[in-house]
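To whoever is covering the structure queue this week,

Two jobs came back overnight. Logging them here so there's a record in the thread.

Job A:
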Amino acid sequence: MWNKLALILLIIGGINWGLIGIFSFDLVAWIFGGQGAVLSRIIYTIVAISAIWCITFLFRREDNLVEVTD
């Protein structure tokens, strides 16, 4: 569950960075009232934590990444 949540947040962050790079438009800042707004900073921090969590995927064995459901 945590892995999927981290990946979703990382995808959101990547899309936001893509919008910034291509259109100079920060969607998170636009939604939450600017880059300096408390909610925007919380979102940026949560996405950064998710990215750090996803770094651990590089060092895990492949069979540990697959969730087994019965």
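Job B:
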Amino acid sequence: MTQAVVLFGSPGSGKGTLANLLKDYLKAPHISTGDMLREHIREGNALGVRVAATMQTGALVRDEVVDRLVERRLAEPDAQAGFILDGYPRTREQAERLCNWLDSRGIRELVIHLIVDYNIIVTRLAGRRQCPRCGTLYNMVSNPPRVEGVCDLDGQALAIRDDDRESVIRARLAAYESQSRPLIEFFREKGRRLFEIDASDRTPEALLSQVCREIGSPEAGLRAEPAVSG
């Protein structure tokens, strides 16, 4: 049976880090709309040019653009047995489209909502740096590189992503609160499987432990604190 996990939470809540850990246990691809869009921007193709200005301001890319990217990615062979969605859906229209797509294929998803304090989010994102070559993310406070300002893997100088600048961070959080956060109520209303975790001060490994228990992974026996709600 296809296992679909939808990671939900504000920018900087740790969705990407959790997804990278979770994909090894589920043997399923991590599908990040943000990563896909940034790859188009790096390539400088027509789509990248169209969405670059939107992402740099912290606004959401149009539904039809993101929907098309996600549907094409989910049609690829490695996603047929399961997948982890990170950054999608972001609007009610996207959520309705995803639920219809899942239901038409008999796939029962698990929505995981990571809850993190606003001030912690701002601190995390303001301290984030990324390698422009390999894409590895660092945080100058919680996960710094071995040599300041340099990627551990390839020695490339680290950079601040355009969407991690403070003014953009606040715009991204405002967009999340107004357009994306209400989707939690949407999932509740529709009776979808929803698991919420306070991720403000949990390590990625502790979060992984809780999520694995919820989805019935063999890793369920790892030590973890109880969830906020489920």
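Note for Job B: The first strand starts at residue 3 and ends at 8.

Please reply-all if you pick these up so we don't duplicate work.
Q.
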